[in-house]
TrEMBL record:
<keyword id="KW-0812">Transmembrane</keyword>
<comment type="function">
    <text>Plasma membrane transporter mediating the uptake by cells of the water soluble vitamin B2/riboflavin that plays a key role in biochemical oxidation-reduction reactions of the carbohydrate, lipid, and amino acid metabolism.</text>
</comment>
<feature type="transmembrane region" description="Helical">
    <location>
        <begin position="105"/>
        <end position="129"/>
    </location>
</feature>
<feature type="transmembrane region" description="Helical">
    <location>
        <begin position="38"/>
        <end position="61"/>
    </location>
</feature>
<dbReference type="Pfam" id="PF06237">
    <property type="entry name" value="SLC52_ribofla_tr"/>
</dbReference>
<feature type="transmembrane region" description="Helical">
    <location>
        <begin position="141"/>
        <end position="164"/>
    </location>
</feature>
<feature type="transmembrane region" description="Helical">
    <location>
        <begin position="73"/>
        <end position="93"/>
    </location>
</feature>
<protein>
    <recommendedName>
        <fullName>Riboflavin transporter</fullName>
    </recommendedName>
</protein>
<feature type="transmembrane region" description="Helical">
    <location>
        <begin position="375"/>
        <end position="401"/>
    </location>
</feature>
<dbReference type="GO" id="GO:0032217">
    <property type="term" value="F:riboflavin transmembrane transporter activity"/>
</dbReference>
<dbReference type="GO" id="GO:0005886">
    <property type="term" value="C:plasma membrane"/>
</dbReference>
<keyword id="KW-0813">Transport</keyword>
<dbReference type="InterPro" id="IPR009357">
    <property type="entry name" value="Riboflavin_transptr"/>
</dbReference>
<feature type="transmembrane region" description="Helical">
    <location>
        <begin position="313"/>
        <end position="333"/>
    </location>
</feature>
<feature type="transmembrane region" description="Helical">
    <location>
        <begin position="274"/>
        <end position="293"/>
    </location>
</feature>
<comment type="similarity">
    <text>Belongs to the riboflavin transporter family.</text>
</comment>
<feature type="transmembrane region" description="Helical">
    <location>
        <begin position="408"/>
        <end position="431"/>
    </location>
</feature>
Length: 448
């Protein structure tokens, strides 16, 4: 395998969600300077789910007009649009227009919608494109996809986004309603520290990352050393070309498990027919469930689950969870366990850890062990294992579906987006409408 091709696959995967992930981590710096305030995350959630019109269109084209859509050209358009949108955000994110008598961040919301279309559509275009390379490079692509969350988080840490210091604050409190005597109350107040560099610089950095992704994609298509890594030329715009008579294509050979009988009766019409329809449903159900948890459900309550344990616990859990994603992909590169039983077991264990995290978020601002140092450590470890286990499951499912052909990877991307959509639809009313969760104050949480 070519190390150069591995690097390009990683950089290509990094462009899949780097812009939206970057926008999320920059929220503490953006929110105080726009009229929407902390309603912005709710608006972003809605815009991201509306952007699923992109992957829906691609999936329907593959289903009803196979070969009509030029997959490579679509990827060029997607990456270029992402580069332009992030670049324009650096200039216009603070600009407002009066809508219905109130100032609104129209430019920020419109450009965010375009970024969301780019990132959502990448799930059903980038992943199927990896059929042009050997199966081993798909794992490297997933590593890059994990880095798309890690890299903006690390840059935001260097920027100093969300760093809180507790400082003494005094105010007067009336002792009675009948006298003018006042009491001076001293309490700690959370104060955000100024950033080391502006949000504009951060958005230009995201635009540069999208350009790096574009260059990587160009080299994956045209560099001579990458061409030698193509297992076959059978796929043109996602349509499989027939192999020469009497010869087995190399991609077909890669689909064959060395422990699987050479002549095995087809169990279904899905892909190579290795899996029955019940097994296919099982795989896609797990894929949808895992992405609902990791992409929308649990991230929406991360601050509620961690902030009661302190600011350090929150930053550690966010950063180390971001590290856990590419780490899981790296493990899968060397230890790819494709057992469906193991996959289900790991999903159940990871979901149980996720249930603990969700339970602590519901109990916020007074979760278990809130007054104990071990409480923060347990929460950080819970986030690490949760992301590590379920990210590994996602990679293994990707490898399984890669062996089932191009169409299977298209449906893989579609189900990823469907799971994320279901998670967002479930959590949005609980967080933003019914106020089921209460934030913990990192400086003044008082629990019995």
């Amino acid at each position: 395998m070519s190390l150069f091709t591995h690097l390009l696959a990683c950089l290509f995967g990094m462009g899949s969600w780097v812009s939206i992930n970057g926008l999320w981590v920059e929220l503490p710096l953006i929110v105080p300077q726009i009229p929407e305030g902390w309603y912005l995350p709710s608006y972003l959630s809605i815009l991201i789910q509306m952007a699923n019109v992109g992957p829906l269109f691609i999936t329907l084209m593959h289903r009803f007009r196979p070969g009509a859509l030029n997959e490579t050209a679509a990827i060029y358009v997607i990456i270029s649009l992402g580069s332009i949108a992030t670049f324009l955000l650096g200039f216009f994110w603070k600009e407002t227009l009066v809508v219905a008598g109130a100032p609104r961040s129209v430019a920020l919301l419109v450009l965010t919608f375009f970024l969301a279309v780019v990132d959502c559509t990448s799930s059903v275009t980038f992943l199927p494109f990896m059929m042009h390379l050997k199966p081993q490079y798909l794992t490297t692509y997933f590593i890059g996809e994990g880095v798309s969350g890690l890299l903006p988080a690390l840059v935001a840490l260097i920027q100093g986004v969300g760093v809180v210091h507790c400082k003494n604050s005094t105010h007067l409190l009336n002792q009675t309603f009948t006298t003018f005597s006042n009491a001076v109350v001293v309490e700690l107040q959370a104060q955000y520290q100024p950033a080391n560099f502006s949000a504009e610089v951060f958005f230009f950095f995201l635009s540069a990352m999208m350009l790096v992704c574009l260059v990587a994609f160009l080299l994956l298509n045209y560099h001579p050393s990458v061409a030698r890594e193509h297992p076959t030329k059978r796929y043109t715009n996602g349509v499989k070309e027939p192999c020469q008579k009497g010869r087995m294509c190399s991609a077909q050979r890669s689909m064959i498990d060395p422990y699987r009988p050479a002549k095995q009766r087809r169990k279904s019409s899905f892909g190579t027919g290795v899996y029955s329809w019940w097994q296919v449903f099982y795989i896609f159900a797990i894929l949808s469930w895992v992405n609902a948890l990791t992409n929308t459900a649990l991230p929406s309550v991360q601050s509620y689950s961690c902030m009661p344990y302190g600011n350090n616990a929150y930053h550690l859990s966010a950063t180390l969870a971001a590290v856990s994603n590419p780490m899981a992909c790296f493990i899968a590169l060397f230890v790819p366990i494709r057992s469906l039983v193991f996959m289900g077991t790991l999903t159940v264990v990871g979901s149980a850890v996720g249930a603990y995290i969700m339970g602590m978020a519901v109990l916020s601002p007074c979760p278990l062990l809130v007054n104990d140092t071990s409480g923060g450590a347990v929460m950080v470890l819970a986030w690490i294992f949760f992301i590590l286990s379920l990210s590994y499951v996602k990679v293994i499912i990707g490898l399984i579906l890669r062996d089932e052909g191009h169409s299977a990877l298209v449906w893989c991307g579609a189900v990823v987006q469907l799971g994320s959509l279901l998670g967002a639809i479930t959590m949005f009313p609980l967080v933003s409408v019914y106020d089921l969760f209460t934030s913990g104050d990192p400086c003044n949480t008082k629990c019995p």
